[in-house]
Predict the 3D structure of the following.
Amino acid sequence: MKILVTGSNGQLGNELRNVLEKAMPGVTTYTDIAELDLTDAAAVDMFLERGEYTHIVNCAAYTAVDKAESDQTLCYSINYDAVRNIAVAASKHGVKVVHISTDYVFDGTSCHPYRESDKVNPTSAYGTSKRKGEMVLLSLCPEAVILRTAWLYSPYGHNFVKTMLKLGRERAELRVVCDQIGTPTAAKDLAEMIVTVISARQWVPGIYHFSDEGACSWYDFTKSIHRIAGIDSCKVVPVTTDDYPTAAVRPAYSVLDKSLIKRTYGVEIPHWEESLAECLTRIVDID
């Protein structure tokens, strides 16, 4: 087995490095834009051919949801063009693909956790670009595995948890949206799921949903971050989406049904508060 990880400098890429080097030391090459420009089709093809890889895990993505509305060219080049290049090269060289997608492929109007078979209807440039990436990957490389996830955070890079920690220590009050419901997901948990997929006895292609268990609003999430971190000097005020307008339309409800991935791989998934508590101890250690 020989694995290529793209987007390795991001929060998922960093967590995947930690998990892979414990589970399968020495079999993985980690790349980011400096080592491999995924938007260069010839470069991707050459990299896969020379490396003789068995698997590629694509963690690379444009994830600036609001900025994507005005920066669609770059957004699509990373979330669509790069995925197409990976699909073409992987199919040519017989490389298995694990690709990360998002809950933003749904419009958030459901009243039950989204299943893989539910109708997609992205409402933002980011969500649309990710959906187009899914489609081109499956059309060119139908044996790929796509993992849709949500509300990702880690000790690395910029994310909601680290922002709420910083602002909670700096401000007396924070206004946080309370009517968008989803599931915070520790990047470490997703990384462990990726390794489970790669190391499984049988490769089972298709789209799977993965997030941590449970559901909450961004307001609830913030309250838990502050409570676990011992921040009691900042008042967190719930506001509606209408009170906090953004460039991109976000799903009001994007909880994912994990039944398929749990049934296929026999995994147990931790509750989001358990994983949050563990992550917060690591943020302190790293900072």
Residues 88 and 140 are 6 Å apart (CA to CA). The chain has one domain: 3-159+185-212+254-271. Residues 3-159+185-212+254-271 form a domain with the Rossmann fold fold (CATH 3.40.50.720). The chain has nine helices and twelve strands.
